[in-house]
Hints:
The structure holds two protein chains of two kinds. By secondary structure, chain A is of the alpha/beta class.
Amino acid sequence: MITFFSPEKLLPQYIQTFEAYIPSRPDPELMKMYRCSRLFRLNNNENALGPPPEAQEVLGRFAPKKAALYPSGDAFYLREALAARFNKGADQFLVGNGANEVISFVIKAFCEQGDNIITADKTFAVYEWVARFSGLEARLVPLKDFAFDDEAMLAGMDERTKVLFLCNPNNPTGTYWTLTRLRRFLDRVDGRAVVVVDEAYAEFVDADDYPDGMALMETYPNLVVFRTFSKMYGLAGLRIGYLAGNSAVVDAIRRTCIVYSVNRVAQEAALAAVPADDHILRTRQMVREGKAYLHGELQALGLPFISGEGNFVMVRLPFSDTLAYRKLMAQGVMVRTMTTFRFPNYIRVTIASMEAMKALITALRSMLT
Amino acid sequence: MPVATGFVEKSALAFGLGQEEALALTLATEEIFAYLCHISAPGTEVEIRCRSAGYCVDTELIFDAAGFQMRAFNLTAIPSVADEAPVPDTGLLIASRLVDRFNLKHVGKRLVLTLIKDKAYPETCGLDMPAAVPVSHFSIRRPEGEEVKTVYRMITRYCRDTMAPPSADFPGKVADIFLSGEIDAAMALDGAGHMGGVLFWTRNALRVVECFGPYVLHPESDPGMAIALLDRCMEEIARSGAVGLINRYPGTGLPPGYFESLGALTFCTGDGVCLDVEASYRHLGEDKGISVWAHPDLVPFLATQYERFTLAREIRRVTTEGEESAPFSVLSAEVDRFRHWTILRPLDYGEDHDRVLEDHVRMLTREGFRAIFFEMDLSHAWQAHFTPGLLKNVFEPRIVLPYGGKGDLVVFQHRMDRQA
């Protein structure tokens, strides 16, 4: 007998109203569907230079037989290397399967039904998503002048606010809080909640007044910093990121941490990437040149743009960003549409090789004429 | 039987239906339940659920699909004297006419039949309403129920040259729908509380949101108001999982650059005045590219449309190679008697599809409907088999709505001027 089963009946209400995120198809499928012969990926803020040479070398000599062995369950050697680099203890780091996973660790550790988190409305979506599909309220504070609004975030706090998420610099606007502003904010939060500063793009920032979260956490034990190997270090395909914080806070978060979720290849490549300072300089140089070129060309095309810190620029189009995506794809250029970031008719463009930047400008020009 | 009918009647009354509507829903349930117990699924489990949506009550009956005569739910169905069991079929027919709408869907080997009965509402009458004034400095927020009723009345008075949103004749119904969460809205107000404009939206299909407006109530209001209302709508739905936003009621005008034109559908008034109403659309995210099923006769139309919109689609042709079909086709019909249009949607495909379509057209035309549409979901290969019959019955494909169903939706319109 085949029994009737409706999964909807078993789903919590907050899951019933939640839609699954459907990622893009793989590049070869997209190229076939859009009939393009090459594809410049300017949609995910990946590093066009790839991983640092040291990491590439590790990847090249990875012994296939090691794939049969479980990795270190808590990324032991990588945490040791991070501790040495940032002058901290290894127990102050937790490594996850991409920074997305450590967002879940933090929310699971500190929040229960009835609690809330606070973040911005126009920022990286995953803080909001994880909160919502955990049955928590995500309080979204509108950006002010394209930046996180500290006063409004503080005003939104109550006794059930457990975590405040700040993306610094903000994805997708590139705005950032200075050291003074972050300190003032932490002072006013006064240990009432955990403050997460997501520094996924920190290694791209040139500005002198950009705060070093790693140093600040010694003064503010409720501060947790996220970093990733996906952006500057070019290891997005291996999914590896980490959080750092005060030992007691990290110990609390570790209770919800899924061990063994980071594979052996990712751990070894990341370990090799940690000291790769030359790679950072080369990437920053590429981003500087790409931005300078793009700024000039966008101005010439009469397209307004928002360009702050990070390896990306937001461009305002005189037509739908989602239509632009399809037309750009047909010309072999993939960008990120911004309607889902609540910026209708904007696209976000990753700064990559000059060849890719020129292909983008050529395609935009053809759409505007 | 008394348990089933008692449950539905008491629920319907508790959920706010009037005596007459509650009785109709109860009788419809009784007819279906009797049919299931005696003919279609005797000795099997039948699950009944009632739900209030504020402005209507839904009754869901979940049962084994085998033996259930869905064809009785055709608008054109009549009791067949040739059938061996005409009386039970008549029961289904009666049930289908007692409710305002119904849905049938397969879940595995079971059917979920949803009977929907609306609450009765009074039409709007000559109530006082605020004057429309130019609004220059405004903020946007979600209106409250009473504000929704007021702004609906203001639209019908101050935006007379536009198509008013659906149910404009029943502001109380709209307020209930709004409170139920089925529609949402953004309203522009100035510091003194003057209403400057409004935009409504609702998730009308699996993955598409439909918006109505923007309605800017005074022509001298801030020209940025329409953009601000649309931006708020998109901010609200951006992370809802919806993939598209459609607009067939542009209100006082859509701002340039926000939508792509899909084409037009023709609507006609009772006295025969016809108007082409443009359907505008935008994706909310990046198009992932999908496969669609199509009959070879429809492929040229689809290829042209997909090329025009730069939509990545793999068109798969359906074929007929001597395989068996079910004997009967079933169509559902959504009707708007005030605006004289109806939408036919296929529920099942069978050998008699041509005649069923023909019967629907004849009946709807006779009853004064001026626009007859047929929606085909290209994610279902079986629906594509309706294409030759549609073309033969002088339907023509008018627009493709990306993701309007489970996949893309083609809207055919019957060409009354070419009717044989």
